[in-house]
Amino acid sequence: MSNNPVIQSSHLIPKSTKSLEHKALSNCVETLGLAKTQLHIFICADQTVANCCSKQASLESWEYLKTRLKELKLDQPQDSRPIHVFRTKANCLRVCCSGLIMVVHPDGSGIAKQTRKLLSGSSKNT
């Protein structure tokens, strides 16, 4: 057995704090419409090291995707249109070839060389 002291720490979280954290998480999930999300788009954007395309091009595509989803009212669940598409800026999807990469989950489709023209065409099919 070692002579080094073992430092142990325990921190009990009061039940009231757990309840507040759970409420905050529930509110966030509801606000974002996560429970109603049918598709989740991951797009390489704002990369730390831009390998697949320039950082500027990735940010332009990200802004266009956000705008287009809002125009189509796909950014938030609607009573008249239950389809909701969530989007995430991924630093790098590790498929650094053929230009900007976008992956749609859960269908698993991946699209390379994203431009406004291609994003516009893929949005119409959604």
Q: Give the structural class.
A: alpha+beta
Secondary structure tally, helices: 3
Order of helices and strands: HEHEEEH
What name goes with the CATH superfamily of one domain? Glutaredoxin
Ranges where pLDDT stays below 50 over 5 or more residues in a row are 4-9
Overview of the molecule:
With 126 residues, this protein is an alpha+beta fold. The chain has a domain at 37-124: Glutaredoxin (3-Layer(aba) Sandwich), CATH 3.40.30.10. It has helices at residues 15-32, 55-71, 116-124; strands spanning 39-44, 85-90, 102-105, 109-111. A four-stranded mixed sheet has the order 2-1-3-4, covered by helices on one side. Helix 2 links the parallel strand 1 (39-44) and strand 2. Helix 2 packs parallel to helix 3 (116-124). The longest helix has 18 residues, at 15-32. The N and C termini lie far apart (64 Å).
List the helices and strands and how they pair.
Layout: H1 15-32, E1 39-44, H2 55-71, E2 85-90, E3 102-105, E4 109-111, H3 116-124
Parallel strand pairs: 1-2
Antiparallel strand pairs: 1-3, 3-4
Helix pairs in contact: 2-3
Give the key terms.
126 residues; alpha+beta; Glutaredoxin; 4-stranded mixed beta sheet; 4 strands
The gist of it:
The chain is an alpha+beta fold. 35% of the residues lie in helices and 15% in strands.
